[in-house]
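Note to self: keep these together.
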Amino acid sequence: MKPFFLAILIGAVAFFQPAPARADEASHRKAVESLFALMGMENVLTQSIDQMLAMQVQQNPALAPHQAKMKAFLSKYMSWASMKEDMTKLYMAEFSESELNELTKFYQTPVGKKTIQKMPALMAKGAEIGQKRVQEHLPELQAELAAEKKTP
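Structure:
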């Protein structure tokens, strides 16, 4: 008789186990969505795309006539609507619900609000610095690649 009750107990545990996991996932997802709303992720993403495109056109003026098509392309594949679910999963994988709540508290502070406001410009300027460094040292890379090609 004992194995019968043990089987019922195991079955009951297995049956009821997913419900808390779903609840935890739902609250975890809600924490991510609250953080995104506070950060204005849709606006941040749009600003980042605009700044990235402007930087590309500035560095390569030949792209200027294609700017509208490039913006439409980026808006299609990098818009908040197209990326929200993947970004949500990413944040859920990288941050616990507790950490997300701490981030939310931080972004509600004056320094957190300033961080949100400055982040797109900082990212764009950081990318610009990186691109400039690569451009300055591109001949070195080209020489190394050319030397590698010559060596059997």
